[in-house]
Design a protein that fits this description.
11 strands; seven-stranded mixed sheet; globular; alpha/beta; Metallo-beta-lactamase, Chain A
Length: 258
Amino acid sequence: MTAPHASERPTGYEPLGVLKPLAKGLWVIDGPAEGAGLVPLPTRSVVVQLGCGGLWVQAPGVLNADLLSVLRALGPVRHLVAPNLTVLRHLPLWQAEFPDAKLWAPEGSPFADATLLGAQAPPDWAADMEQVLIDAGPRYREAVFHHHNASALIAGDLIHAIETVKLRAWQRPFIWFGGVDDTDPAMPRKLRNACRDEAALAVAIERMVELRPRRLLISHGRLYEAGGAAVLERSFRKLLRERQWTHALKTIEEKTTR
């Protein structure tokens, strides 16, 4: 087991590999920048202490000896959650350290031994969190979670909000061109192109907005401690606007046919 190498370029979210409290029973773990592209992206995991006392870990990332000790002291890790179809390269290490933890992932994930994440939260955490499944086609499925007490929406790749001020100057244009800098966070173009069912995506986003989350915790980029619902509305404003028109036209049609 190794911690992030000291020579790695800072991500701006240091310290890395450390449990950082946000609310009662809710923490994040910021990890090193990862990815094969020109601009490796900062990574983040979310840890929730469930009412039963067990720990739930979303997008398991970096794991070092100190973090392992802290997690064991908090309670047994019961659930490891892969929120989307992305391969989590640190997951095997978590499974080795917590062999009794149950692995969860959406249909189509590369983890054959995972229990499927569905449209409804399983009894394991239904009392603590609501679950929204985006099933927008075989290439894009993602489960998003809403922590009731902390008013926190926990997402993976749904949106990116990369703070370019934390990057090298030559890397910033790639983020601006990709449209995923934190001044106007958005779903990455690659994922948006992978969506084959925009109606399913829209329904899921509408439900997330209805939950009015205060916090928005995403895997890549800025951590939002306030205004989470507004960020969602802004990120998906075009999609939501189209839905509003559809609803309005349907209402008009129903009235004129009575």
